[in-house]
Amino acid sequence: MSGYNFAYLDEDTKRMIRRALLKAVAIPGYQVPFASREMPMPYGWGTGGVQVTAACLLPEDCLKVIDQGADDTTNAVSIRRFFQRTAGVAVTESTRAATIIQTRHRIPETPLTEGQILVYQVPIPEPLRFLEPREPETRRMHALMDYGLMHVKLYEDIARHGAIATSYAYPVTVAGRYVMDPSPIPKFDNPKLSESPALQLFGAGREQRIYAIPPHTRVVSLDFEDYPFEASKAPHACSLCGSAESYLDEVIVDDAGGRMFVCSDTDFCAGRRALAEEDAA
Amino acid sequence: MYVAVKGGERAIEAAHDWLGRARRGAPDVPELGVAQIREQLALAVNRVMGEGSLYDPDLAALAIKQARGDLIEAVFLIRAYRTTLPRFGASRPVDTGAMACVRRISATFKDAPGGQVLGPTFDYTHRLIDFALAAEGAAPAPAPAPAEAPAAPMPHITGFLNRDGLIEAETPTDAIPPDLTREPVEFPAPRALRLQALARADEGFTLGMAYSTQRGYGRTHAFVGELRIGLVEVELDIPELGFAVVVGRIELTECETVNQFKGSRTELPQFTRGYGLVFGQAERKAISMSLVDRAMRWRELGEEDTGAPAQDQEFVVMHGDNIQATGFLEHIKLPHYVDFQAELELIRRLRAEAEANAAAMASEAAE
Question: Residues with Cβ < 8 Å from A234, sequence gap 6 or more?
Fold first, then answer.
């Protein structure tokens, strides 16, 4: 697209974002304030992720964009097209072929590899925000590792419901130091955060924060000894590919409320079906 | 079908084509020109310039046309364009004292040097629908000949109070004000930054906050010391020349409120200030801004924090931006079925456990 720099943002802005990214990688799980720009898509629709992706993209990169695990959801299509127009980079739906993957609400089922970057779109980066609305106060709590309030909240969940009643955006501790919001991924995805060979970057545009999990960093979901963390999913197998290990979407298929369960990761599901067809042939 | 959102690419294209046709409306009705919007919907243009933080009436008018009259959408278009513009300098502070006023009123003095000038105002009109306007075509009566005397200088009214030390002194500073579009906001934020946030904050939000202070939530007893609207010159220092050059003129609305202050241990009783400055003719916004500005100053003036929303700078600054607010609000239209699925699974499990417990209790009771 003429009139705009490669990947939309000007180079000064990219440098500012890259500095924030470097700091974020140096202090895993710490929320680095950055001067988030106004983007041509609305706040809350991935402006943080888009800025991080724009700052990381090189002309030789191959980009994959998913929303809810799928490449063909409307907002994923919109963001992928944005980078096709402004950066002209190659795009793919294959998790393996991608060098940068921007995601909203999922981690791909296919294990990531060294050299890949996973960029998360983050709505509320502060894991303590719903316990304490004030920013100076939450920053102080992080500085002092004062996470008692969070443990009390999880404890109260158990006392009231018999289980920790958080099913997505489940808080984690990164590298034994900062409590971090992994973005609204289902807690099923939390184990994939830990020891990943890929670089994981998190961008929150409206809230002006960037944070990161460097490759091979230990990430632990908060829990108690007698109530250990459990990565749960619907107790079904995918109706299309038969996988019993993948995270499932529930789709209502008829007026009588009939439903089927299918993989939320469309690339994973399509890959398994192609393999099955090859085997059959 | 929304659920699967297959073929999203084609659906998006088709929806945007439809949007284009809907924007145009019935083709037998003449199309609106950008100049018509600029000239005849000037107050909408002003609002878009103010909240968009970009002074360009033609561009704001075009944004209103493109946004089908949705002013927040128009502000969004302006903001997204503004962010790509290079910055080649910062102007000198504009001198609102030298403003060529089309309107200038004071509610605190019956008369003052320069006089009261009503200007083009809705004040004192009776809000009766003018059905004659629907007939169109009638050219307005020509403007009366301008008054014989050249415009008298209009010094700031608060200057008269300042002379007697009855109002807090405003110390001029050459410090470069922070820029919330270039630095992440941190709290507590200095007044300059709060004013910047208010200047581009949503008019409705600012009005609601200001109104709440009038009704007792962080009351500050404001009088409109002065409200002035008019053109000011924008001067830019040109390093190569060694002096400042006028690069343009912009219309501004400035409001200075005079507020009660009972004094403290170190300060004699005196009046305090609230300040509002907005692009274009936007006096509702400018007055609201000055009330909210004053309410947020409680700490520096040693006043009590009553816990009122308008006193809480983090609350006001973080929630006043309509582009941030509308984006985040409307993002809940995006698919959330992964999170929702996780919640469904949790609710089903909790219910199954509770039902199993209840059944166990019932069978125990029966035994």
Answer: A248, A250, A261, B341, B344, B345
Span B209-232, pLDDT tens digits: 999 999 999 888 899 999 999 999
Give the tens place of pLDDT for each residue, B125-147: 989 998 888 887 667 777 776 65
Read off the tokens for B79.
Answer: 């903001």
Q: Using CB atoms and an 8 Å cut-off, which of residues 299-338 of chain B contact chain A?
A: 314, 323-324, 326-331, 334-338
What is the full DSSP assignment across chain A?
A: -TTSBTTBS-HHHHHHHHHHHHHHHHSTT--EE--PPP-SS-TTSSHHHHHHHHHH--TT-EEEEEETTBSSSHHHHHHHHHHHHHH--EE-S-TTT-SEEEEES---SSPP-TT-EEEEE-S---TTTTT---HHHHHHHHHTT--HHHHHHHHHHHHHHSS----BS--EEETTTEEE---S-BGGGHHHHTT-SSEEEEEETTTTEEEEE-TT--EEE--BTTB-------SS--TTT--SSS-EEEEE-STT--EEEEES-HHHHHHHHHHHHHHH-
- Which of A40, A247, A250 is nearest residue B344 as measured by Cβ atoms? A250
SS3 category, B360: helix
What's the ipTM? 0.83
Q: For the whole model, what pTM was predicted?
A: 0.88
Considering only the beta carbons, identify the residue of A39, A136, A208 that sits closest to B184: A208
